[in-house]
Structure to design on (75 residues):
């Protein structure tokens, strides 16, 4: 779905984003910024779902752009 030239850059961006989220989450847990009664596991799961959803949305946008190019090329 992603060109071979862009794959390493996309993977590096995703890894950096994940590291940033993990560092932010660890800092928030340590400082007590998370509301009481919320389990750490729930917060981590929420961040994971957010990243999955954003990645899927990006993939859909790329797929739509490629579809649009193909339709325009056929027309």
């Amino acid at each position: 779905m992603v060109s071979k030239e862009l794959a390493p850059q996309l993977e590096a961006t995703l890894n950096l984003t994940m590291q940033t989220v993990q560092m932010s989450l660890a800092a928030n847990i340590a400082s007590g910024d998370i509301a009481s009664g919320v389990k750490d596991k729930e917060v981590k799961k929420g961040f994971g779902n957010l990243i999955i959803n954003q990645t899927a949305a990006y993939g859909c946008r790329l797929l739509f752009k490629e579809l649009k190019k193909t339709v325009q090329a056929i027309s």
Summary: The first helix runs from residue 7 to 31. The CA atoms of residues 29 and 40 lie 7 Å apart.
